[in-house]
Amino acid sequence: MNLDSKIPSGPLAQKWEKHKFDSKLVNPANKRKFDVIVVGSGLAGASAAATMAELGYQVKCFCFQDSPRRAHSIAAQGGINGAKNYQNDGDSIQRLFYDTIKGGDFRAREANVYRLAQVSVNIIDQCVAQGVPFAREYGGYLSNRSFGGAQVSRTFYARGQTGQQLLLGAYQALSRQIGLGTVKMYPRTEMVDLVVIDGHAKGIIVRDLVTGEISSHAADAVVLATGGYGNVFYLSTNAKGCNVTATWRAYKKGAFFANPCYTQIHPTCIPVSGDHQSKLTLMSESLRNDGRVWVPKQKLDKRSAAEIPEGERDYFLERKYPSYGNLAPRDISSRAAKEACDEGRGVGPGGLGVYLDFADSIKRLGADKVRERYGNLFDMYEKITGENAYQQPMRIYPAVHYTMGGTWVDYNLMSTIPGLFVIGEANFSDHGANRLGASALMQGLADGYFILPYTIGNYFATAKQPKPSINHPEFKKVTEDVQALIKKLLSINGKRSVTSFHRELGKLVWDNCGMARSRQSLEYNLKKIPELREEFWQNVKVTGTGPELNQDLEAAGRVADFLEFAELLCLDALTREESCGGHFRTEYQTPDGEAQRNDEQFAFVSAWEYKGKNAAPVLNKEPLVYEEVHMSQRSYK
Amino acid sequence: MNLKLKVWRQKNKNENGRMVEYSANDVNPDMSFLEMLDVVNEGLIAKGEEPIAFDSDCREGICGTCSLVINGVAHGGQEGTTACQLHMRHFQDGQTVTIEPWRAKAFPVLRDLVTDRSAFDRIIQAGGFISVGTGGTPDANAIPIGKVESDRAMDAAQCIGCGACVAACKNASAMLFVSAKVSHLAQLPQGKVERERRVLAMVEQMDKEGFGNCTVTGSCEAVCPKEIDLSFIAQMNREYGRAILIGE
């Protein structure tokens, strides 16, 4: 299949303006004739649902949480980028664009990234108008901080709870529309399948998580804003409920899945404490503004941090990347920490940790200033570890945090199924092989507030599709498929819990397709994962029944999808015979251990096409054609 | 360490519930409270029994999903901490621990420890927002807002909507939750435009949902994981009085 990215012609800086002008509009009186389904209520979903309802569309919004305010965007700590240049430090749309493209190791689509940088300034204005209490200076103007992979301060923040405040802004905009009756909200409701009729997305099948009831919902377009797939690793910084089910089931209905191997390992998370661990907690990257990362120079050094003199410490990020220092991008910082631990210089239990030390900052700024900047993070660290980071360095270790891959979408954010749009972390488009800090919030809100509401109108105006109805036989058929799947899960009655399978899968993916991957490790996984999946379908134990609140059943459906998805993730990693961003193949590295890209052969987006249960998926390639940027060796030295 | 648990089990909204005893053995002090429950649930599943249903999602204290009354105290009594961030090192070997759901008329139990808190959403839908559509907004730096005002707005805006304030209150009052949103928005110049309409609508909805009245005992502030200040209730009362006098 020929993948048409629908990138508009013309100079990069004018593509979006031109595209908006060329797009067909739906007149205000006609908008209310169109029904739109939005699945997910995080930054992307809530902003899209609210904005489309404001425009006049009839919107239904679904989330599995008990309230749309709880989507995992809420946990983002550090901030949101916006090319405002309020600090007069040389920022511009062009620079944010370039930093993002370079940060993504030249594997993102140029036109999308430029548009993202353009609308970033509108997002900040929008959020302030909604009452988001961003940090301010005494003069009353907005404050900024710097983040990894950038040499300007363009990150807006609300203490260490920026995601929370932005999500509450979007949630309040959504709530206003719910109150006005233009959005119908379905909390505690999970999408279990997509309905495609005559090649167009026409609705979804959902399960009410309280009653277990399965129901059909038809619409003129379906928008997935269902987040990333980081929980395929079992342990990640994602919320417990985050899953790949919506995008995976859409994949099986024909929506290509792009670049699944681009997964982000965040360098600053609290290390694992034991087998009971259910998730990992991030310590915001903003901490690297004032914290210094180090390990002992000596291997297997058992002394406490305080006992190790300055001369015997290796501030390895400052040493290896002097111009960015502790603010080197995430992929690079994570790999550097892993290397130090692999050499036996890690600290804490099991040697899987490095220090993040604030002693110098406390000396320079005083403990109060540090508390003002990061107090809630230090508190969180103490709650989890029982250690006081004002008195001793934090111990941190990389953990899975974000997934750059996702459903393939064109410039309009539409997937390969017409009428199915995918926004936010769930799509693949803007971050290439590595996302820069404070860019996820930017992308989610860009898609939801300022991009999708324009492009979806063009689809309605040009597709001229018949009005869908849940009485169409396809809804009945898909409902039966869903019911059969649930029945099967409940009837296996084996010996192993759902969690035990998830944990085993996560360990396979982390060990063999995590921070470093090789042909050998990936081939191992491609053999092991199908065996584990086979065992799951023979031996899983799911308690309870279908028509009731059944958390075990919810988890089983999600893990079943992860067991399929993990195979595609490893296959994609095996196929991409280069290293780029978060995808590090040990066979492809420069002499000093940096990622070695292969632009000649791999400057493309991998878009995987489902071919049926027993057939291998097909790899489609969208070439990455750069009109403005020259691909170069990424250097932060 | 080993613990004896007494847990509220209830099949669904309509059936009666009861306390059931379980033992939690070999509890690691580095576990979070919810991870301890995960381990208990794994044991129940292995025995073919239905696991204890409880709500949780982010498990880092910010989403507001987890909602357990532990030993009679919402979120378990560690200052400024949600149940998901409460760690087992604060418990002692051999201790008996009771675990119950939020109890309030406005928060019906759906199953075991899971409650329906959609009443909070309906209060926000009634007026907990600034009426601004997407687009057409002025430059973010066009309105300077003093740091002190902005910080106080943030203090209120931190509310995670978990409902512990309601669970702790003998009257099951939602005043701390509602006042946090009223104060956050009324504090800022952008939110002042519709402040009267907002507070009247939110209070009306709050009463309609069946939450009780506030007698300022401060039990809400004591359990609030975000340490939302009781003074916001005073601020809301002022807002409300002002709105009554001025009218919408």
Write the layout of secondary structure elements.
The complex is a heterodimer of chains A (about 625) and B (about 250).
Chain A lengths: L14 H8 L5 H4 L3 E5 L3 H13 L2 E5 L17 E2 L11 H11 L6 H21 L24 E2 L5 H19 L2 E4 L2 E9 L2 E9 L5 E5 L2 E4 L20 H7 L5 E2 L4 E7 L22 E5 L16 E2 L1 H5 L9 H13 L11 E4 L1 H7 L1 H19 L8 E10 L2 E2 L12 E3 L17 H24 L9 H19 L4 E2 H16 L5 H21 E2 L9 H25 L23 H4 L1 E6 L8 E6 L14
Parallel strand pairs in A: 1-2, 1-9, 2-5, 9-17, 18-19
Antiparallel strand pairs in A: 3-4, 6-7, 7-8, 10-16, 10-20, 11-15, 12-13, 12-14, 14-15, 20-21
Chain B lengths: L2 E7 L8 E7 L8 H14 L22 E2 L2 E2 L21 E5 L8 E3 L2 E2 L2 H10 L19 H11 L6 H5 L6 H13 L1 H4 L2 H14 L10 H5 L7 H16 L2
Parallel strand pairs in B: 1-5
Antiparallel strand pairs in B: 1-2, 3-4, 3-5, 6-7
Helix pairs in contact in B: 2-7, 3-5, 5-7, 5-9, 7-9
Placed side by side, the strands forming the largest sheet of chain A appear as: 5-2-1-9-17
Q: Cα-atom Rg of chain A, whole angstroms?
A: 24 Å
**Largest sheet of chain B, if any?**
5 strands, mixed
Uncertain spans of chain B: none
- Say what oligomer this is: heterodimer
- CATH structural class of the largest domain in chain B: Mainly Alpha
CATH class of the domain at 266-401 in chain A: Alpha Beta
Unreliably modeled segments of chain A: none
Overall, the morphology of chain B is elongated
Q: Examine the secondary-structure arrangement and name the CATH architecture of the domain at 266-401 in chain A.
A: Alpha-Beta Complex
Briefly note the structural class of the backbone of chain B.
alpha+beta
Strand order within the widest sheet of chain B? 2-1-5-3-4
Helix percentage range of chain A: 25-40%
Query: How many strands in all of chain B?
Result: 7
Treating each run of at least 4 consecutive H or I residues as one helix, how many helices of chain B?
Answer: 9
Number of discrete domains of chain B? 2
Report the total helices of chain A: 17
CATH architecture of the largest domain in chain B: Orthogonal Bundle
